Amino acid sequence: MTQSLPLPDNGLVALTRTSLLALRTALFRDVGPNAAALLQEAGYAGGQQVYDAFGQWLASHGLGSPDSLAATEFGIRAGEFLREIGWGAIELGSLETVATVDAAEWAESDPGYPLEFPGCYFTAGMFADFFGRLAGEPVAVMEVECRSMGAARCRWLVGTGETMQHVYDQMGQGVAYDAALTTA
Ligand SMILES: [Zn+2]
User: Fold this and answer.
1) Spacing, Cα 40 to ligand 1 middle (Å)
2) What angle do CA 11, 31, 111 make, to 5 degrees?
3) Rounded mean pLDDT of 92-115?
4) Are 74 and 94 in contact (CB under 8 A)?
5) According to the model, what pLDDT value does residue 113 have?
6) Using CA atoms, how far apart are residues 113 and 31, in angstroms rounded to an integer?
7) Is residue 64 a contact partner of residue 74, using CB atoms and an 8 Å limit?
8) How remote is the C-alpha of 163 from its chain's centroid?
9) CA 163 to CA 157: how far, in whole Å?
10) pLDDT tens column, 70-87
11) Is 139 exposed, middle or buried (0-12, 13-18, 19+ CB in 10 A)?
12) CA–CA separation, 119 vs 12, rounded Å?
């Protein structure tokens, strides 16, 4: 595969998947549930560079800027880009009033270290900034299925803060997220 995205020029560093998972495991072990917010904050902080790198990647493929792509094309290209930089491929879709981001094998997920809850918090933060930039307004991102909890894929919902709060509250009462979305 040709290297189409020089890492140093795009503010990126290569990090091994093992280190990322070890960091997450250590944070949850020593900090407890607050680790989620710390990982989310770190992911969010890097969102702009990831978005800019995606723009560079598109340009190097002669494909224009991220916001000039049609939705379907955006999903395909973002999937290729994220796979190429090591995170894994994504598929974009929609469910009721929210967008869905599905990944069959995401780098932050770890079926070997099972959790009782979705565990890709760094990614949720990164996606919140990334998709917020694309949407031109703040978005909230919540992971509702995760390979770390035995699911076949990771799935994040992307929508308004109000909708995500509703889904979160409903899930806390035992309602499935897809059912919660029908009443959002
Ligand atoms: Zn996950």
Assistant:
1) 13
2) 70
3) 94
4) no
5) 80
6) 17
7) no
8) 18
9) 10
10) 888 999 999 999 999 999
11) buried
12) 23
Q: State the distance from the centre of ligand 1 to the C-alpha of 157, rounded, in angstroms.
A: 12
* Contacts of 34 by beta carbon, 8 Å cutoff, 6+ apart: none
Q: Report the separation in Å between the CA atom of 116 and the middle of ligand 1, taken as the mean of its atom positions.
A: 12
Give distance in angstroms: CA of 44 to centre of ligand 1: 16
The DSSP bridge partners found for residue 158 are 99, 141
Ligand 1 centroid–CA 43 distance in Å is 14
Over pLDDT 90: what percentage of the chain? 86
Q: How many Å lie between the centroid of ligand 1 and the Cα of residue 62?
A: 32
- Ligand 1 centroid–CA 105 distance in Å is 9
Return the closest-CA partner of residue 36 out of 24, 19, 18, 50.
Answer: 24
Within 10 Å of residue 50's Cβ, how many Cβ atoms?
Answer: 22
pLDDT given at position 46: 96
- Residue 48's nearest CA partner among 129, 109, 105, 107 is 129
Output the CA torsion 39→43→46→47 (10° steps).
-160
What does DSSP assign to residue 61? Answer: T
Pairing state between β 91-95 and 154-159: unpaired
CA 83, 157, 59 angle in degrees (round to 5)? 35
- Give the span between the Cα atoms of 62 and 84, in whole angstroms: 17
For residue 159, the cross-strand partners are 140
